[in-house]
Amino acid sequence: MLFKETFILGGFPRKPEDHLVMDSQDQVDAWHAQGSGEGPILSIYHLNALACSRLTASGGTVIDVACGTGRFAAYLAKMRAAGLSERVE
Length: 89
What we know:
The protein has a domain at about 40-89. By secondary structure, it is mainly alpha-helical. Helices cover about 45% and strands about 0% of the residues. Helix 3 (about 40-55) packs across helix 4 (about 70-80). The protein has helices at about 1-5, 25-35, 40-55, 70-80.
């Protein structure tokens, strides 16, 4: 993925969100839905769960401090309990 983004012709321009703060319930609900079992950011959750698990000692604690709806924290806990054996295609 890093190779593809680094060497893609024409670059890969980044566009920041128009609203960096989710200050309406509709925004929160939409973000939460994206992380559902079939949501498009599930693969991002998996990649981050792998990284967090490698950075956390066996039996260590991960604290989610006001980072959204808690869906990623729940996914991370599930993957750590399962030994990160599940894969997302």
